[in-house]
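Run log, item B.
One chain of 365 residues. Sequence copied directly from the ordering sheet:
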Amino acid sequence: MKTYRLISLGLIVWAFAACDDGLDKDISVAGVTVAQDENVVCEGVTVNAKKGEPIVFNFDGEPDNIVFFSGEDGKSYDFRNRTTIDISQIESSKLTFTIDTNYGYGNATSYADVLHMYVSTNFGGLYKDDFEADCKQVEEFQWDELVPVEELPTNISQTHSYEVDMTPYLGQNITFAISYKGQDLANIQGRYNFTDMKITNVYKNGKVTEVPAAEFGFNALNISPAYPDSEQLKNLKYQTSLWDSESNLIVGNYQYATITVGYDVAGMWNTSAISTSNRFYIHASSRNTQVSDVTLKNTWLVSDYIVVNSCSPDQGVTIKTMSNRLSSYEYTYDEIGTYKATFLMTNSNYKHEDAKVVTMVINVK
């Protein structure tokens, strides 16, 4: 049976004492102690623990709420409001993706000058409620090429993989844009499949993070045909946002729509799998032979602003609320290292909230 000794630890970073706020308990008396045994030893304000061995934290003062930040990657109190990574900490940043043209027909003419991929650090962004203005600005804007057009697929059944250095764009708001514009009605307007598009950041400490295409905020601009034949859109009958109560096409919704439910429509972007398998594509369109409604397709896919070195704020775990009692909490560190463990403790009512932060150094060997 283990024998425990208790030692009070914690550097109080900040605390507000209750005044005339009606709080029943004084947050200033709340504290944290650590149970010591042969695997957990305290030296001053440092807790020395063995890898894989549980640490037991005990609580004094009965705070209403406690949120625990272990200090591991993604769980640091100091980074709870951080949304970008310091550029100096990034070793490399790359955009990678694959394009293939694996449709069963077409020829080199079907793909000649149809696809363009762009990037910009000063595009003003889509209005998203003024289609005419959005069309004008994307087509007249001076984009930079993300991938030189001569390096994009030039024929049927080709697969090309790409790697683009993103370090020149660190710290900037960038916009990606993909333009698909049919060139010749006498030929098939080809299909392009995009897979595994993501930005990968490698940090100097060895950590790797990825931002998938699903987080780029892509929006379509379906410029042509502006008013598609209703027969084409029957495949989208389950995409209810496109139709009014009498099954009439809501043109304003179609103009910015991607296919998310239903079957493919010629010349429209399909993003139904972008969040699950990081895949999207634009469907091929027929040549003008015995089909009266065939038009040259002109459509864009434009991202929201992307900050290459963006990150999600670190998160703590709520271990106590007003609805549960908690006198102790057990946590195990599975990797060797030094961590800054933090407890955010609060007392609150409908008028006021008092908070106290207790931190300690956890040295895992």
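Observations after the first pass:
- The chain has two domains: 5-81+318-364, 87-307.
- The chain has a mean pLDDT of 87.
Flagged for discussion on Thursday.
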